[in-house]
Amino acid sequence: MTEAEYLANYDPKAFKTVLLTVDAVLFTYHDQQLKVLLVQRSNHPFLGFWGLPGGFIDEYCDQSLEEAVLRKLQEKTAIVPPYIEQLCTMGNSRRDVRGWSVTVCYTALMGYQACQVQIDSVSDVKWWPLEDVLQMPLAFDHLQLIEQARERLTQKALYSLVPGFALAEPFTLPELQHVHEVLLGKPIQSKSFRRRVEQADLLIDTGLKRTERGRPANLYRLKPDTASYRFLRNLEC
Amino acid sequence: MTEAEYLANYDPKAFKTVLLTVDAVLFTYHDQQLKVLLVQRSNHPFLGFWGLPGGFIDEYCDQSLEEAVLRKLQEKTAIVPPYIEQLCTMGNSRRDVRGWSVTVCYTALMGYQACQVQIDSVSDVKWWPLEDVLQMPLAFDHLQLIEQARERLTQKALYSLVPGFALAEPFTLPELQHVHEVLLGKPIQSKSFRRRVEQADLLIDTGLKRTERGRPANLYRLKPDTASYRFLRNLEC
DNA sequence: TCAATAGTGTCTTTAAGACAATATATA
DNA sequence: TATATATTGTCTTAAAGACACTATTGA
Predict the structure, then answer these.
(1) B165 Cα to chain A: minimum distance (Å)
(2) From start to end of B4-145, where are the E strands?
(3) Where are the domains of chain A?
(4) Which CATH architecture has domain A160-228?
(5) CA of A174 to C1' of C6 (A)
(6) Which superfamily is assigned to B12-155 in CATH?
(7) Burial (CB count within 10 angstroms: exposed 0-12, middle 13-18, buried 19+), residue A215
(8) Best residue in B64, B90, B155, B230 to probe A by mutation, most A CBs within 10 Å?
(9) Chain A residue with minimal CA distance to B19?
(10) Cβ separation of A45 and B97 shorter than 8 Å?
(11) Per-residue pLDDT tens listing for chain A (237 residues)
């Protein structure tokens, strides 16, 4: 049989009926704490529960998984986040009562900005403090996904400046340090932190300063290659 | 509508028809080089091409993605690899002529052992030298997946002893060092390497020695927590 | 001037790099 | 004994930790 003959006989509907979705754990930093964007479900299953933004692939509209998840986020926040990365894929027969289900989950970061409901498949969209979310009952296995995303981001706080993408630009160096401290759950020696930042050469000094009690702090922006830069040595704290 | 009513009306076949597979990049170390397990396809598309072991989820037999990929590997190698980790998920409308297609890809490591065809969905199974594979035309986007798996393993060679899972136990310390050197493409100071191994305390000394020209070398096994151990500092080489 | 926060100087500590020296096999 | 490879000793170097010190603002 040639490939052409094979394809002529091929019926895609005859095959698997696994449910496939994309989801995103979108973090930001606001009011001195990490927050996660959640949406309140207006459909079964888990109607009324809060869960991650995401949903089914649109085979016709989406060209790729990443395009699909960015579309979902844009529907909720009207923004494309400056940092996005594939986290993991969860797939098993138990996570959704409708049957075998797979979700490809992404971690994304953006500077805080208010958001509001843009579409009707959800009844509400809200930034929740991460610490509160870890105690809430959430849809599906979304709590697990958030925990995993948080662990990965904590690792990155040890060897990169990626957490900076959770800040609205321009930001101060003490703010950046504080995001890292919140993730690590411990204070960092500011001398060590500044030395690393200087060595990495990832921040653009805007020349501006922000005053808020005490000496004014320099304001910076992130260079785009912050997403891929890795320090050779971890912070030990 | 209650959830029960919703589910009674729910028709899974009415929904998406995305193709879903799992694949594995299985590495081993043999004859001083890294090798990858490939299978020769006996079905369209890419009939006759070499590609990664993997295939469709069996909704009834497989409880989870990881179970599915382990089943696929066991069918080819009659072994469960001592190390397996999710690599990434590739999904888009172009990677398979049959339509929108998603594969959840894993990286796995095992000590070398010969293997032979166990099933008939492929016509051959073979360990290929990694350097050769990177020049071969492969099925689908499997070359990309192998490149990505190799990059990730190279990173791990800098801050962990995970590459040791590619060795047949027991192994010598110079062998372990050589796997790392092959991945990094550079020699490592053996003093540095040994210091790290000692500090990590991940190797069990079997008390045995292997002689092969020159002074005999101690033989070791890996402790299971080698899979999760991370050094604070990367090798710089 | 004081309180508060930003940012620097500098000494200590840790672990890697470099490389010479020693140890234990076989031929 | 000579050669080959394994393993150790030890000095240098890079970068983090600790912490005291200086700088710049507003009240």
Answers:
(1) 22
(2) 19-30, 33-41, 50-51, 54-56, 83-92, 101-109, 122-129
(3) 12-155, 160-228
(4) Orthogonal Bundle (1.10)
(5) 8
(6) Nucleoside Triphosphate Pyrophosphohydrolase (3.90.79.10)
(7) exposed
(8) B64
(9) A16
(10) no
(11) 665 554 556 555 545 578 999 999 999 999 999 999 999 998 889 999 999 999 999 999 999 999 999 999 998 888 899 999 999 999 999 999 889 999 999 999 999 987 765 565 667 899 999 999 999 999 999 999 999 999 999 999 999 999 999 999 999 999 999 999 999 999 999 999 999 999 999 999 999 999 999 999 999 999 999 999 999 999 998
Rounded to 5°, angle at Cα A63 from A60 and A69: 100
Contacts of A198 (CB under 8 A, 6+ apart): none
Q: Which residues touch strand C (CB under 7 A)?
A: A 172-174, 190-191, 194, 212-218; B 188-192, 195-196, 199, 209, 211, 213-216, 231-233, 235-237
Which positions ≥6 away from B31 have C-beta within 8 Å? none
pTM over 0.90, yes/no: yes
| Strand C bases within 7 angstroms of protein beta carbons | 3-10, 15-20, 23-26
User: Hey, what are B168's tokens?
Assistant: 């047949």
Q: Which helix (H) or strand (E) holds A191?
A: helix A190-200
Does the CB of A9 have a partner CB in chain B at under 8 Å? no
